[in-house]
Amino acid sequence: MTTIRTWRTGAALAALAATLTASAASAHDPFAAWHGAAPPALAAPAEPKIIAYRGAILFDGTGAPSRAGLTIVTRGERILAVQLDHAPLPDAAETVDVAGLYVLPGLIDTHVHVATPPDADTARVQMRRWLYSGVTAVRGMADDLRSVGELARQARVGEVPSPDIYYAALMAGEGFFKDPRTQAVSAGAIAGQTPWMQAITSDTDLPLAVAMARGTSATGIKIYADLPADLVARITTEAHRQGMPVWSHAMVYPATPQEVINAGPDVMSHACILAHQAQAPADRPVSYASRTPIDRAPFLAGDNAVVQGLLEQMRDKGIVLDATVRVYAEQDRAAAAPGARQPICSGPMVFALTRQAYRTGVAISAGTDGETPDSDAWPALIEEMVLLQNAVGMTPADVLVAATRTAARTVNQADDMGTIEPGKLANLVFVAADPLTDVSNLRSLRFTLKRGEAFSRANFRPPAD
C-alpha cells in the first residue's frame, strides 16, 4: 500500500480550510477568494494624443531625396499624416517645433544577441542605449528565448526603454550542439531539445518542430549549421508553409551557399561565407566548427565570378543579405595580437564581397552581430552604417535604407515600420545634421520617437567602465 504523506502544519491546514470556505461562499466571484474582494472595474484607456512635429526635413526611408517644410502628425503610436507645414491640423493637435531638424525612420539592427548567455541586467543596458541612439527595433538572432521573451514583452509594453525585439528560434544539425554557447542558452534543459534551439535530423517531425518554434513567439526560423542541403530545403519549405520567414547563414556547413539559395530563405547572413562557394569542393569545410580561414586573394583582386552568380540569384529571388561587415573589422583588430587566431575572412575581404553585392543590386540590411562596449556613447549599428558608407562604398541614402526600409523587410515588419507614411508606427529619429551627407551625422541625434513616445538624447548617459 502506498502511503501519502502531507507536510502541512496545523496553521497551514486552517488557512487552507478558510480559503476553501471563502471560495465556496463566493462562487459567483472566483476572484474574491484570491484578492479578498471583487476586482475593480478597469478604466477606459486614455484617448491617444495627437502631436504635430512641424518644420521637419524628411527622409522617408524609400531612398527618395529629402523634402523640407513638412509636418508629421502622430496619433498615439501611429503616424496619422505627413503633410505640408501650412496644411490645417486636427483641432486637438499639440505642436512640436522641429524646424531645421532632419527626420528619418527609426533605425533597425538586423543582427543582435541579447541573451547568450542570458543576463537581463546587461541586456537592458544595451537596450536603453539602442533606443536613445535612434534604434527602434532589433532582430535577435538566436539566444535563450526564455529570457528574450520577457525582455521583448518589457520592451513592447514600455516597462523599460528599449527597441521592440523580434527574434529567431534556431535549427541546426546535431553536431552544432557541442558548441558551449548552446549549453549556455539551454541551461536546465538539454541543448538541441528545446523549442528555441532544436537539433534537426532526417527523422525529425518538421511540422511539429516548426510549430514548437512558433510557440516561442519567435518571428522567424534561423538555420545555423551542420545541416545538409536537403534538410535546409525541407525546413525552409515547412516554415514557409506555416507562415514563418527563414533566416539562414549563407553557408550551413555542409550545405553550400548555392544550396542555401536553392532552398529559398528570406534572408542570408554574413557576406563573408558566400566566399566558400568559390573554393574547390575538397577545400570547403563540412562542419561549422572548422573555422578555417579562407584565402583572401580571389576576392580582393576584383569581383569574383563564382560569387557573382550567387549574388545575381539572390537579387532575382529577393533574398536579403544581412552582411554584418563590422564584426569582421573587429575580428581583424583582435587578430592583430601576437599568436591570435585568424578569422575566416578579413575586413577588407568582407567589404569587397558586400561591395560586389551592392553593385549587383542585392538588398542589403544593416546588422552588427556584435556590440561596442557599454561605456561607449553609441552602439555598433552606427559603426556598421559608417563602414557600409566608407568601406563598402554605399551612398548615404542607400545606407539609411539598409537600416530602415530593407531592415524592416528583414525583420518581417515592413507593414509597420521602415518608412515614414500614414498608418505605420511613429518610430522616428530627429537629428541636427544631414545624414544624407554623411551617415555619421546620426550622432547629432536630438530625440527618438518609439511608438509615439519621445526619448531625448540629452537624457542619456552611458554607464561608467
Describe what you observe in this structure.
The protein has helices at 10-25, 32-35, 120-132, 145-157, 180-184, 206-214, 229-241, 257-263, 297-300, 305-317, 326-335, 347-360, 380-392, 396-402, 405-410, and strands spanning 50-58, 67-75, 78-84, 94-97, 102-105, 107-112, 135-140, 164-172, 193-194, 197-199, 220-223, 246-249, 267-269, 320-322, 364-365, 428-431, 445-450, 453-456. By secondary structure, it is an alpha/beta fold. The strands form 2 sheets. Strands 6, 7, 8, 9, 10, 11, 12, 13, 14 and 15 form a 10-stranded mixed β-sheet that branches. Strands 1, 2, 3, 4, 5, 16, 17 and 18 form an 8-stranded mixed β-sheet that branches. A hairpin with an 8-residue loop joins strand 1 and strand 2.
Topology, element by element:
Blueprint: H1 10-25, H2 32-35, E1 50-58, E2 67-75, E3 78-84, E4 94-97, E5 102-105, E6 107-112, H3 120-132, E7 135-140, H4 145-157, E8 164-172, H5 180-184, E9 193-194, E10 197-199, H6 206-214, E11 220-223, H7 229-241, E12 246-249, H8 257-263, E13 267-269, H9 297-300, H10 305-317, E14 320-322, H11 326-335, H12 347-360, E15 364-365, H13 380-392, H14 396-402, H15 405-410, E16 428-431, E17 445-450, E18 453-456
Parallel strand pairs: 1-4, 1-5, 6-7, 7-8, 8-10, 8-11, 11-12, 12-13, 13-14, 14-15
Antiparallel strand pairs: 1-2, 2-3, 5-16, 9-10, 16-17, 17-18
